[in-house]
Amino acid sequence: MKDYIVRATAAGGQVRAFAITCKNTVEEARSRHNMSPIGTIALGRLLAGGAMMGTMMKNDDDVLTIQIKGNGPIGAMTVTANAKGEVKGMVANPEVMLPLKDGKIDIAGAVGIGVLSVIKDIGLREPYIGDTILITSEIAEDLTYYFATSEQVPSSVGLGVLMNHDNTVREAGGFIIQLMPNASEEFIDKLEERIKSVKSITYMLEEGMSPEQILEHILGDMDLEILDTIDTGFKCNCSKERVSKAVISIGREELSKMIADNKPIEVNCHFCNTHYNFTIDELQDMYNKATH
After folding, report:
1. 61-100 pLDDT per residue, tens
2. For residue 15, what pLDDT band results from cuts at 50, 70 and 90?
3. Could you count the other beta carbons within 10 Å of the beta carbon of residue 1?
4. For helices 211-219 and 185-197, what crossing angle results, to 10°?
5. Burial classification of residue 100, based on how many CB atoms lie within 10 Å of its CB (0-12 exposed, 13-18 middle, 19 or more buried)
6. Pick from 8, 53, 237, 278: CA 20 to 30 A from residue 284's CA?
7. pLDDT of 199 strictly over 80
8. pTM of the full predicted structure?
9. What is the mean pLDDT of residues 167-186?
């Protein structure tokens, strides 16, 4: 099944909703970064949340970045997404392993305490940055808290990744439900009760629910209206040309040292783990292009 995002509204526009299935996206991230189950689940949740949040952006050129910097062994995590459903992500320590906690994979222990930052680059001189503390370090609740405090949008976020015994991704997905400013008190109370009673996202994924079925499960009797679907996937915009510009930017002094070593260099893209090799001749060409 392909990965995609569904956007919807309900209750006559009093609520907007997003749901995603992204097993292939998370599996690609896992294989590219050689991630442990903990790394896969943590980054997978953030990829699912980031992909949905990316589609909230107005223009195709707008870029949304979510960074989580905790003091746990997994280190920093970064996900970047856009309005077209393209998403990519990286984690500082992808192979982290921890013992189970209460029989479950300890995501909060791996992430630790710290800060969640959302950076929106929408073509203005300065990007918008919203920082909030990590509430549970389980990611979904942390994004819920971010929406409530930084954007003043009451939201409910559910994110899940299920693994196979061979460490491949079995299912991945999630939802974001948001109250709009025109929501009545009566409807808010009804929705709060509903969200308390819905099954966990893990249960929904285990049942093989599609994004449409997830939203139907939560908002089915509230005049749910599916607006559109957007294909999503792991996509990195790196290229040899972009990487060479980054290498040029380190300056002539460092480039001359590399040339003096008389060995080709290899540069890795942090997001997709693609390797780019540069020969001595290419380094010399970069040296000639460098301005300092």
Report:
1. 899 999 999 999 999 999 999 999 999 999 999 999 999 8
2. very high
3. 9
4. 120
5. exposed
6. 237
7. yes
8. 0.93
9. 95
Phi, psi of 15 (to 5 degrees): -145, 145
The residue type at 78: T
